[in-house]
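re: ur question from yesterday

yeah so i grabbed the chain u mentioned. its 297 aa long if i counted rite. heres the sequnce exactly as i have it in my notes:
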Amino acid sequence: MISSQLRRPVHTRRSWLFIAGADESALCAGIASGADVLIQDLEDFTPQTLKAHGRILSKNSIRMWKESGLVSAVRINPLEHGGYDDLSAAVAANVDVIMLAKASDVAQIGALDRELTRLERTHGLPIGHIEIVPAIESAAAVLQISSLARSSSRVTAMLMASEDMATDMDVTRTRNGTELAYARSRFFFECAAAKVFAIDCPYTFADPTGAEQDLQFASSIGYKAKSLVEPAQAAVINKLFTPSPAEVALAIRVTNLFDNAQKEGRTRVEMDGHLLEVPTYTAAKRLLARASQFPDA
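ran it thru and got these structure tokens back, copy pasting raw so excuse formatting
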């Protein structure tokens, strides 16, 4: 079980910012981005020669992030490729989330869960306190999402990669992202079926217009969270994935109409000439519940 400490609930973590693991200034500056989750990336964003230095930086970085009210995460290498050292440093720093690079089978998650339990016990942390977020970076892994989700109670979310996914699929990465459209849709669908929170892949081009279009696409197919590598994108992501005043007003109107109809014994509910059905009411209630998680929005 995940500890009930004051940690932002997973479904309200809209923006997940990757930061180079050995760049001390970037690790400090990440706080100002406004991202909900800061990820010290000890995998691709950290050259082999700097990984040991990155692990040293974990303690202070995670402490700063948590003191700022942010969720702290470390992306570690697969355990079989140096990940044990990454994991040891992250747990010693009392990280919130371990993101496992290139997750592809249940044996990896099981081994990570067991090692986390051992390290939590060593450091006097509550067992189950640290979450696991598998990074899905291949087509084969997308097809294993259901199994991966069931492999540990620590798995609260999954994140889809962009560059590695495109490479695995042998497609050319483009600004409009057409080549990943199906993979992103399938990933979200599989996560929904497995009841884990889906985090969309990052937009890695230096193109603000393209980034916003990519974000709009993610929202249109159901995502409520996105990873990023450019800190400036965090504010836009947070805004889009936070219910707007207009959306809240519409949801209130829908729920009031349904509630009043139920009190009056009516089975037919209309709004502006359109018949409203129970799924619409359910969606409106869900939006209001989500909006209540962002009182400062």
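noticed a couple things. The mean pLDDT is 95. also The longest helix spans residues 245-263.
anyway ttyl
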